Amino acid sequence: MTLTSRTAHASHQEQARAILLQLSGQARRAREAFLVSASVENVHALRGALRRAADGVGLLEGCLLASDVAWLRRELRWQARRLGKTRDLDVLSARLVAKHPYTGEFRPADLLIASARTRRDAVVETAKAQLLSARAATLADHLEHVLLRALEAGEGGLHFDNVISSWLSQADSAIRVGEKRVMALGRRGRHKLRGHIRTLRYNCEVCSNGSPAETRYIAAVIVLQTALGEMNDDAVCASLRKELAHCGDLDKVPGLEPSLHQIHRRELKRAWRALDVLALPDFAQAQHSRPPGSSPGLVSAAQPPASAS
Fold it and tell me: Is the pTM of this model over 0.85?
């Protein structure tokens, strides 16, 4: 190996290492905050941090051993799913409270809000117990070390810039399914597509240096993810309202009315068209134009809105 190639290899390793350190640090801080207070913000931050870490491992799979990638992604996603029920109840409560402010008069939504909050207390305690279990804590307490050891074990894999270019190109192509197909997707199809879009967004953010083209592309991806998320939240809230105690005609409760679905379909169509005209920027090139350890995109996206999670 020549001096130039050794230097380039070291640079690639440092860039991959910087990404893994940022992701593990974000997950660690979010976990600590959640265990202190399971607020809406902390639940959302931890769930997002765990997903970002899992997606970042997928982004760097060309630099890691396949067995390590499979195990890390499975365990990080398992932890993120522990917070899913809490997030669903937070979405329902937020919708109702935002459009149904308390005035002292009892209305159909009030009992539903109270029931959702009571259920949330129970599922939060279950989630905390699961995230403190040996399965979760073993990885969480040593996540940074585990990720760096995985990178060392995978040394000699593909060049980092090739890994970035290949992964993002494939991920972008996978979501270019066409407007007709997007609008014809049912709940499961939309949920699956949203997962792909969320993963693409997270990994674009971690690779971005904040150039105008990257910023426009990421913003369009976020809007599309949010539009799909709103439609998913429609279905989640409709399901939850059947499980929770309530009274009165909930179809007339602000935040749950059936007409919201049509509004969100129109938002989805606009979001899809806005992204469809944009080409994928060269995020791999951004890695050569910033010092190791800097990631403006990741920092700015540390607290995305709840509907975009």
Answer: no
